[in-house]
Amino acid sequence: MDNAQQQLIRLYLDNLQVHVTAMGHNQVWSDWRDLDYTPDYNKFYLICDGEGWLKIGDTEYMPKPGQWFLMPQGVKQSYSYTDGPRFTKYWCHFTAKVGENNLFNLLKVPVFLEPGAGGEPHCLFRELLACESGTSLSAPLLIKAAMLKLIAYYVEHAAAGRAGVEPAAVSEPLQAVIEHIHLNYYRNLTIDELAERAHLHPNYFIRVFKRQFGTSPIQYVNRKRIEEAKWLLTSTNLLLAEIGAKVGIPDISYLSKLFKSSTGLSPTAYRLTYYRSNSTI
Question: One MF term in GO for this entry (predicted)?
Fold first, then answer.
């Protein structure tokens, strides 16, 4: 995976919005069966025991205990019990949106993992279920946090596997815009210039970009600039004015304001914090 792909995946994850609609841990019912339906939510199944059958798209599976399946939103699927002992599984139904898109339309990930003998996936599902029964005011936030942990685990372990993870193909015009930003973020990029790359009217281009990436074009450009500024602050001794010139924000006051808005720290404080936390005694 090249650096541009990594940045695009991180952009998606940074703008991810999740909502859990149902969850549980149980043996499936004796009538657990549905054929050729298309859900408007994603599903995670972590198989604990038993036997069953799944079909995702055109591919059939006979999941084994320990396997963790993703059944994506908007994909035709089926499931059924078999003649053997019925599945016992952890499960949850959830939406995962980046802008108007399902995360798993934007990322190519395998539909199942084999996490191995470690019990971390089970712990993560138990954490999610514990949040459901919580009565605290912050319970909705805790559920979202637990769901994000599950997605993060799935994506990271998928990336480490043979299939890997990569962003799904972006339309050629938008891909051209992303590449142009990565190559020219240090310049004074305008919406008109970026829209021309996409062959779209500027107003329509802004809407299309935000639907795809969950952020506006200018926010994306500035995010790229701040990421580069963070790297320069921690890897060089350049003055802030020199860093501003390199990342396309020569106005030091504006750079400081944008940097603090993004990180909560001024550039100077960020650099000092980095050096202190990485110094050895």
Answer: DNA-binding transcription factor activity
Q: Are residues 85 and 53 in the same domain?
A: yes
Location of structure tokens 């149980």: 26
201 and 140 assigned to the same domain: no
Same domain? For 126 and 31 the reply is: yes
Q: Strands (DSSP E) along the chain, which ranges?
A: 16-27, 33-37, 42-49, 53-56, 59-61, 68-71, 77-80, 88-98, 101-102, 107-108, 112-113, 166-167
Give the burial class of 194: count Cβ atoms within 10 A of its Cβ; 0-12 exposed, 13-18 middle, 19 or more buried: buried
Strand (E) or helix (H) holding 139: helix 139-160
Q: pLDDT > 90: what percent of the chain?
A: 69
- 1 confidence band (pLDDT: 50, 70, 90): low
State pLDDT tens for residues 99-152.
Answer: 888 999 989 999 999 876 568 999 999 999 999 877 788 999 999 999 999 999
Which residue intervals of 161-201 are DSSP H helices? 172-184, 191-198
CATH classification of the domain holding 42: 2.60.120.280
H or E element, residue 202: helix 202-213
Q: Where a domain ends, among 136, 167, 198?
A: 167
Domain that includes residue 15, residue range = 3-167
Amino acid code (one letter) for 159: A
51 vs 43: CA distance, rounded Å: 18
Q: Among the three residues 167, 185, 214, which one is the final residue of a domain in this structure?
A: 167
**pLDDT at position 114:** 87
Per residue in 231-256, is it b (16+ CB within 10 Å) or e — as a string? ebbeeeeeebeebbebbbbeeeeebb
pLDDT in tens, 228-262: 999 999 999 999 999 999 999 999 999 999 999 98
Question: Residues 177, 258: one domain?
Answer: yes
